[in-house]
User: Fold this.
Amino acid sequence: MPSLITQLSHILGQVFESEGLDKSFGRVIVSDRPDLAQFQCNGAMAAARSAKKNPRAVAEVVVAKLKDNALFSKVEIAGPGFINLTLTDDALKNYVSSIVADPRCGAEKIAQGENVVLDYGGPNVAKAMHVGHLRSSIIGDSIRRILKFSGYNTIGDIHMGDWGTMMGMVISELELQHPDWVYFDKDYTGDYPTESPVTIEDLAIIYPKASGDSKAAPERMALSHAATVELQNKRRGYYALWQHMLRVSIESMKANFAALNVQFDIWKGESDVHDLIAPMVDDLKQKGYAVESDGAIVVHVKKNDDNKEFPPLILYKRDGGVMYGTTDLATLVDRMREYNPVKMLYIVDQRQNLHFNQVFRAGYITKIVPESVELNHLGYGTMNGTDGKPFKTRDGGVLRLEDLIAMGREKALQRLEEAHVGDDFSKEEREDIAMKVAIAAIKFADLQNNRIADYVFDLDRMTSFEGKTGPYLLYQAVRIKSLLDKAGYKTGGEIIISDIDRPLYLMLSELSEVIENAARNYTPHVICDHAYKLAQAFSSFYGNTHILSEENAAQKQSWLTLSAMVLAQLELMLNLIGVNVPKRM
RNA sequence: GGUCCCGUAGCUCAACUGGAUAGAGCACCUGCCUUCUAAGCAGGGGGUUACAGGUUCGAUUCCUGUCGGGAUCACCA
Assistant:
């Protein structure tokens, strides 16, 4: 079932076409001036330019052909050539009735199961997750949900940092601290213990020390590099220790992501493509794509028509080590082979834009990725504090992710107590509600802006739960649930449209385009925005209209149906940004 | 210095990719809980869209320049 706006665009498009003009000029959008019309088409003005005609004259012709269409109660020309459209209530009612029982709430699909790989999250093994991982995780997860709903087969890959120098740092640090451990005995040939010798808490202390020491002293760094190389050569003891750290870290990551309600389809890491690197580089050397430069092996990615510098992608450093670009290129090999996707999307900090451009160019140049596949770096800005500088805690450290979530939950619990909401709920339910409120607040605050630039992370604002926030949306959804519950609502009945509820029905008809816009441009914020507007419009209606005391039974049933539709769309949109609604709050 | 991104209300952000009167939230004022959850609703003040040109019926959006902020510029990730 095409959306209402699709249907209208089709009708207008046919009229333009019958006049020898491109049918794309018939594109209909929601009116900017609700006081004048419900929908509008600006195509006459654009068409006039290409056809060298008067815009109003073009509009006149189009309007003349729409006059007797029974869908419209009003078709007018305004200003330089805007075509203003208003539907009859019958037409609106017909459309709304057609989506009332639709689980997709009228949203069309834009894909037919094509594979899309999304790369987000990117936590590091042995390193505690902190607020820096937040944006990638929740933006990536939301885009995954949106594309999946839109008809793609999505493959969300967590792409862990599990194979770089930091692993060598930690291993060498452990060896310095515990030289007697069996993992460091080169002559040992037996089995290693099944229990990990380190916990995630240990790692949270060890990594910063190892990293700091390595950066401070070249000879300490040399140990880290040596350990990295030995690990990558799979020295038995190191590899066993690494597996322990991997397992311990994944456990901790899973707890964090479960709390955030962020999901992945596959849990691969840099280590998974390690064995692909040597054959890949050999192959590229043979084909002439990889060449020696200054002692390193590189792929040149600068094109002739570039007016800017494009450093080559380094595959092997002068010392023979590999870089993250090497791993990323090998990951392209892996993903093409495993999934043959139409798109590969990277939700990673905008600062890595140049790096990804290098990798993508190298991917196309070497034919690892065909030109038909979209490679896209969806960058996002740095998370700043209210002072405009990169976010730090009061004592200057990084805020751990679990601490952030705990802070949000505390605030929400406090709010529940103040409002005496849930005094009679079980402790478990109150905690569950607080958790959902906290997650909604954190995610909505982040996802509501589209800025590639920076993002101001303001905990106080986020947990005030007032105004345009995630908890506001939960609150409105829960109120509707409570209303339907009290009314004992069952589906059925005619939809009756009147002045006080017409804006809401019109808004319900916009969902398909909103989600399509978000899916095509990878912009979850348009969903946040529309969800907020819908919630606000309903809240206004709810405040002015007492539904349960309505005496006209048919009217009451119609309003309950409207409420149920608003709720369904709200929950759908919240789901697309990874937010769950509690039963009550 | 080269390249890229950004500059919209006091603050944080939108503006359907060139459309009509630039919209929200916070903060500030005024009302509204003995009828469905006040984490709410109704209303008010607040703008030369950094600045200067250009393109056209029409510019926050596209082009040029200036100013200001940020990022990045091959052996770290």
Notes: The two ends of chain A are 36 Å apart (CA to CA).
